Amino acid sequence: MAVGAFAVDGGNTSGFAGRITLAVVITCVVAATSGLIFGYDIGISGGVTTMVPFLQKFFPSILRKAAGAKTNMYCMYDSQVLTSFTSSLYIAGLASSLVASRLTAALGRRNVMLLGGCTFLAGAAINGGAADVAMLIIGRILLGFGVGFTNQATPVYLSEMAPPKWRGAFNTGFQFFIGIGVVAANCINYATAKHTWGWRLSLGLATVPAFVMTLGALLISDTPSSLVERGRLDQAKRALAKVRGLDTDIEPELAELIRNSELAKAANEEPFVTIFERQYRPHLVMAIAIPFFQQVTGINIIAFYAPVLFQSVGFGSDSALIASIILGLVNLGSIVC
């Protein structure tokens, strides 16, 4: 798999220095900000699809149905074109995630994060300046590619950069920034909902977290594990010295990374075949079961369509957006706790 020995082989690295240096914190915080772009998109789209100026420009049929509706207003959101707008991001994200692991191994974790940030930046700019539905969908597809790449590369990057003892804590940072992105998006939707250009600002401001993450990716180094895998030993040594501290003896850990990389290459096995071996089955089951059951709870759909759902149960437009902010804050608070 594209994770690398440093990320998955905790037993071999747990004996090395586990200090949290300033370089580790800065590097991991910069990487974790990629969660902002995913969180922002989760929070922004549902609110935008309730804005009257947005619907008037792109989906007027929904407003006509809503004006004469005698049923729950949620039933008016049955436009296949609107569904294409919302779902195209996730379809593109699914497609990109299938190739992202290969790219992460070949190009490096940082470079894939950079690629994802640039793609998301382009998609956000196109959405903010959209003149028709085609531009909206193209922008959403680019956003999906950005999300797929960064969601693959960032957790791997955090796992490989963090000291073994603190990997879980640093990986939670990615989820924390997703929560911040959701709350920020809902607040922006509330602030812009009453303006005719509000939807453009809401969609276009996605360029801000994308720019922050892209700029940050340019300033950080790739992980030592990734550099070793690609044969860049001098760079790997410098990167490891930087994150572990200049006063730390990094040679044993570097030697272990090199040894694990050589063993993996010597085995010459397809990673997706290796993970089905008996010794890895518990890890494989948990790696599939945890995200699967988290998704089938439907919480992502609730977060995504929160303003529409709150409107459908009788909330006013402003009240629905405020309720979405509260939902996001509760989610963020639970991550912190």
What is the fold named in CATH at topology level? Growth Hormone, Chain: A
Highest-level CATH class: Mainly Alpha
**Helical proportion?**
over 70%
User: Regions with pLDDT < 50 over 5+ consecutive residues?
Assistant: 1-15
Overview of this protein structure:
By secondary structure, the protein is mainly α. It has a single domain (5-268, 305-336), classed as Growth Hormone, Chain: A, CATH 1.20.1250. Helix content is 77%, strand content 0%. It contains 20 helices and no strands. The longest helix is centred in the middle third of the chain and has 29 residues, at 133-161. The radius of gyration is 22 Å and the shape is elongated. The two termini are 32 Å apart. Mean pLDDT is 82; it is low at 1-15.
Lay out the secondary structure.
Blueprint lengths: L4 H4 L1 H4 L8 H11 L1 H15 L3 H7 L1 H8 L12 H28 L1 H20 L4 H29 L5 H26 L5 H7 L2 H13 L4 H6 L3 H12 L6 H17 L3 H4 L6 H16 L2 H6 L1 H7 L4 H20 L1
Helix pairs in contact: 3-9, 3-10, 4-9, 4-10, 4-11, 4-12, 5-6, 7-8, 7-9, 8-9, 8-11, 8-12, 9-10, 10-11, 10-20, 19-20
List keywords for this structure.
Growth Hormone, Chain: A; mainly alpha; disordered N terminus; 337 residues
In short:
The chain has 337 residues and is mainly α. It has helices at residues 5-8, 10-13, 22-32, 34-48, 52-58, 60-67, 80-107, 109-128, 133-161, 167-192, 198-204, 207-219, 224-229, 233-244, 251-267, 271-274, 281-296, 299-304, 306-312, 317-336.
